[in-house]
Every structure is written in structure tokens, then in C-alpha cells.
Amino acid sequence: MTEPIIEMKNIEKHFGAVIALGGVSFDVCPGEVHCLLGDNGAGKSTFIKTMAGVHKPTSGTILFEGREMNFESPRDAMAAGIATVYQDLAMIPLMSVTRNFWMGNEPLKKVGPFRFFDFEKANAVTMKEMARMGINLREPSQAVGTLSGGERQTVAIARAVYFGAKVLILDEPTSALGVRQTSNVLATIDKVRKQGIAVVFITHNVRHALAVGDRFTVLNRGRTLGTAVRGEITPEELQDMMAGGQELATLEGSLGGTV
Amino acid sequence: MAASADERLKEVSRLRRAMIRPELGAISGAILVFVFFLMVAGDSGMFAPQGIQNWTVVSAQFAIIAVGACLLMIAGEFDLSVGSMIGFAGIVIAILSVQWGWPVWLAILVAFTVCISLGAVNGFLVIKTGLPSFIVTLAFLYILRGLTIWLSILTTQKTVIGGVRKAAEGDWLAALFGGKILTGFFQWMGDQGWIETFSRGARAGQPVVEGVPMLVVWALGLIVFGQVLLTKTRFGNWIFAAGGDAQAARYVGVPVNRVKILMFMFTAFCACVFATAQVMEFGSAAADRGLLKEFEAIISVVIGGALLTGGYGSVVGAALGALIFGVVQQGLFFSGAESSLFRVFLGTILILAVILNTYIRRIITGER
């Protein structure tokens, strides 16, 4: 495998007396999907927010393309090429797909002394990029609200990729989706990986992780329980690690292995 | 690829596409109102040149403040201090020009500067405190109204300050708010017999409508500016984004705070245009001017299809809402109806508009 594009070493994050992260190490390479798994409260959100520049780590180092980075804000991280797609904050439903896609990066054309939003270019690029992700829009001016949850995630992912993301952080992109939409999003993740982008995929669903992941890191109570490579771990083992083993094994027995 | 996309385009029925245009309600409302008054007041002079001028001016007044309120509402905020700002700006102009003897152009410029700064204060407080703009601007509704009355009584012992017309004679900036344009054209139309002319008195031979009041020019200018800004520019996209979901907008680098504060300033600018034109028209300022204007502006905007929650709306719609307002208010007068019924109409149409808008929003966002 190639050099990691981003490397997080011994990241600790304390909120007052609470130790949210107690020394987490994690890295991801270009063209790789690294899944970050963990139950609720394991520290996944805190960890990716540290990576995305929302939180500053209490201690530990972040190496981006081999250089040590200190992100002061999400903008810094974005400028470096780390894009985050949040589960519910990705899109504005009342605005059109084009307006959403270009939000904050609107293309301009000059007419005399004025500069206008270049809708012609924006619409064409939006349609093309969406088609590349496997979504044929009816029209670029349709409101995002008319898209399904999976399609909305895909627009957000396509947007991040188009604007030059090198690392794409996906915060539980599949947790609110149905079966078909989930598989569409997973297919999108696969397409993004094939473009050589490093993907950090946060989920608490083992099956979704195993479907596209190359490596799997499990967080539990603010610590890494270990990293496994694809093919070296079974779904059962992964599930066990996530839930902290014991209790779930008992529960699973009584539920007949359906969890 | 393109062909298949086109095929799918037809799945959206025309009706449905028309339904999700924010202006739809306002367009049908405007047509309805015109048809109604053509029937009940068609022979009352409402649609004679003077009558047309009459409701055009009233509509233009509504439109000026509606454009500001519209952009602000789409950006996700309210300004309830617009009415008080109108009274305040007028008194500032009158005190400076009549009481202190400043040139009128300077008084107008100072009023604009003060109002736009107050707009910025409104916006700044909303952003910094995180309080709803409803509360912050409600406070300014009282503060500014109180200051206006106090300043007026302090300097003149009266709440009405006259004499502005005399002070404004020959002033270049005052003419931009109080004058009329195309007077030659209207004189020519009068000479041709296309519009009535006075037959007796000092103005014999002059047309009954001398020209297009600057107030109407301002209204049209602001409507075009607002519509282009909102739908054709990068900043317009930021206005939608700031009101649609401020957090999502911030995540992609939209300067939400700047957008909102600028919109508060623009709303204040519009209020000041209204106030200046009114002072120039009446030749006086009064401390109670602009009462309830903030609500009338908001109602125009809502009739125009904007959502109270922000992120969706249309300047053209708001302008049509203002037109509906003007026509109904003056139409009730022309048809001899009780003028207090106007308020009944306002309340009713407000509720209907909000219900329609909520329904449309469900269609757009797919909630159904």
C-alpha cells in the first residue's frame, strides 16, 4: 500500500473532566476506504471532528501528506483537501441541486462590470458529475428536497469530490437509509475510492462496513480496539469488538444471532 | 444520456412545475383582485389615469419596504423595526434640514447613514447574541419609536415638523425622491388627448397626471435589483443558503453572518427610501409615520410566496403582494366600501397565503 495521506497519532481530546478520546491512532491511504466503527458514544464523532478541524486535539499529532498540521478551523481542513459529508447537514432541501452543489463555490461570468452566477456552466457540470455517480437528474433545477436520502448523500459526495477532496470523511451516510438507497451510497463510495481518494467511512453497521471497507478500526470508549484488514476478520468478530464482546454474545444467543 | 434525461423531464406535469414557483399565489391573487375591482369599481375612476396613479403610488410604497423585508426573510430573519425606522428617518431629515438649517441633501445622507448603521446594529445583535431577530427588532421597534417622538418634541415641542418642502426646493438629492420623471411625455400624451387635461384654473392644459413619481421609479429599481441579486448572483445563492440552513451553509464556507447583517442593512436602506420619499411628498415629517409598516411589508412578502422560516421566496412575488395591497386598499376606497374592511382583508389573505405556502413547501421538500 502507498503512503498514508493523513495520519493521526495518539490523538487525545478532553472536554473538561471527560476524556472523549484517550489516544487514538488512525491513518488512511489514497484509494482506500478505512471504516471507523463503534457504538454510540465510542468517540467516532469527536474523532472525525478533530480530523475535520472542528475540534483541536488536546494532545497528539496530525500528519497530512507527511507534514504536521494544526487545523484552526474547518475551513483550514477543507482548504487542505479534507471534506466532510455530515449525515443531516449536507444539503438544503428547498434549494435546487445546482444551487446546493455550488454553494460557497459559485462559478461566475462577467457581464460588463457585473459578475453573475454562471448557471449554464453550473447546470452542465452538476448534471455531468451526478451522472458520473450514477444519478440521472430530471433537471438540475429540481429541489434537493425531491431527492431521496441516498441521492442527497450522493450529491454531497459528488460535490466534495468535484471540489478536489483528497480525503473524504463520511459521517454515517447510510444510517438513515433504506436497503436500496444504502447500496447506492455504498456503490458511490466504491466509485470515489477508484478515483484515488481516501475515504473515511464512519458507521455502526458492520455489514455496510464490510461491503466496501479495506481496513476496519473499532473505537470503544475513546480508545482503538485495533485495526483489521479486509479478509482477516469475520463479521462476527467485528460485531463483537464493537459491542465490547461479552454482553452482546449473551444477547445474541437469546435472539438467535439476528443482531 | 441527454435523451433519457429529457424523457424524464416530461414526468413533471406543467401544473406541478407552476405550483412550485413561489410567485404563483401572488400572480393569481393579483389577477383576481384586478378582475374584482374592474367589476365593482370599474366606473368609479379607479382605472382612469388619476386613479391608476393613486394605487400605483400606494403599491410602490408597499413594494419598497417589501423588497427589503423579502430578502431579509429569505436570509432567515425578520425586521420588526421597519415602521419605527421610517418615522425615525423622517424626523431626522426634518430636524436637520428645517430646525438646524442644514442643506436637505446632507440631511438625507445623514438619515441614510444613521438608518443603515441601525440596521447593522440590529443584525450584529441578532448574530452575536443568537437571539431570534423577532425579539431584537421588536426591541428596536419600541426604542426607535420612542426616540423619534422624544427627539421631535425636544426640538420643536411638536410631533409634526413641517416646512421641508420649502427647504427642499431646488435640492438635487431631494428631487431624486420627491420629483417626477417623464413629465414631457405625459404633457405630450395630454396634448394628444390620450389622458385628460385640466380644463380650468392655473393648471389648465396640463395633464391630470404629470409624470411618474420618483417613488414608483425607486420601487421598480429596487424590485429589479432585488430580483437580479437573488436569482442571478453568487450573493443571491448565499441569501438562500443562509436562510435555508445556516449551519450547512457555514460548512461549505458561506459567510452566513455577513450575509445576514448586510440584509438587515438593506432592509434599513429600503425603510429610509420610503421615509425620504414620504417626507418629500408631504413636505413634512411626523413622529407617528410608518406605524404597522413592518407587518404590511411582511404580509406582502408572505403573499408573494416566501416562507416565514426562510430559504425560499421571490422578490417579484413580494412586489406582486405589494401591488395586491395597494389595489385593494385604494379599491375599497373607490368602491365606497368601509375602509376598515381593509384590515379584515389583510388578515384573511395572510392566513390563506401561509396555508398555501406551507402546502407548496411540502411539495418541494417531498414531505407531501
Short characterization:
With 259 residues, chain A is α/β, with parallel strands linked by helices. Chain A contains nine helices and twelve strands.
Summary keywords:
heterodimer; A: 259 residues; alpha/beta; Rossmann fold; 6-stranded mixed β-sheet; 4-stranded antiparallel β-sheet; 12 strands; globular; B: 368 residues; mainly alpha; ABC transporter involved in vitamin B12 uptake, BtuC; two-stranded antiparallel sheet; two-stranded antiparallel ribbon; 17 helices; 4 strands; disordered N terminus
Please write out the topology.
The complex is a heterodimer of chains A (259) and B (368).
Chain A: E1 6-15, E2 18-28, E3 33-37, H1 44-51, E4 59-64, E5 67-69, H2 74-80, E6 82-85, H3 97-102, E7 108-111, E8 114-117, H4 119-132, H5 149-162, E9 167-171, H6 179-194, E10 198-203, H7 206-212, E11 215-220, E12 223-229, H8 235-243, H9 246-255
Parallel strand pairs in A: 3-10, 3-11, 6-9, 9-10
Antiparallel strand pairs in A: 1-2, 1-4, 4-5, 7-8, 11-12
Chain B: H1 2-9, H2 14-19, H3 24-41, H4 49-74, H5 82-99, H6 104-129, H7 133-156, E1 160-161, H8 164-168, H9 172-178, E2 180-181, H10 183-191, E3 212-213, H11 214-232, H12 234-244, H13 246-251, H14 256-282, E4 285-286, H15 293-303, H16 315-334, H17 341-364
Helix pairs in contact in B: 3-16, 4-11, 4-12, 4-14, 4-15, 4-16, 5-6, 5-7, 5-14, 6-7, 6-14, 9-14, 11-12, 11-14, 12-14, 15-16
Describe this structure in words.
The complex is a heterodimer of chains A (about 260) and B (about 375). Chain A is an alpha/beta fold. Chain A has one domain (about 5-200, about 220-225): P-loop containing nucleotide triphosphate hydrolases (Rossmann fold). In chain A, about 35% of the residues lie in helices and about 25% in strands. Chain A has helices at about 45-50, 75-80, 95-100, 120-130, 150-160, 180-195, 205-210, 235-245, 245-255, and strands at about 5-15, 20-30, 35, 60-65, 65-70, 80-85, 110, 115, 165-170, 200-205, 215-220, 225-230. In chain A, strands 6-9-10-3-11-12 form a six-stranded mixed sheet, with helices on both faces. A four-stranded antiparallel sheet of chain A has the order 2-1-4-5, covered by helices on one side. A two-stranded antiparallel ribbon of chain A has the order 7-8. The relative contact order of chain A is 0.17. The mean pLDDT of chain A is about 85. Chain B is about 70% helix and about 0% strand. Chain B contains 17 helices and four strands. Chain B has helices at about 1-10, 15-20, 25-40, 50-75, 80-100, 105-130, 135-155, 165-170, 170-180, 185-190, 215-230, 235-245, 245-250, 255-280, 295-305, 315-335, 340-365; strands at about 160, 180, 210-215, 285. Classes of the chains: A alpha/beta (about 260), B mainly alpha (about 375). The interface of A and B includes residues 84, 104, 131 and 159 of A.
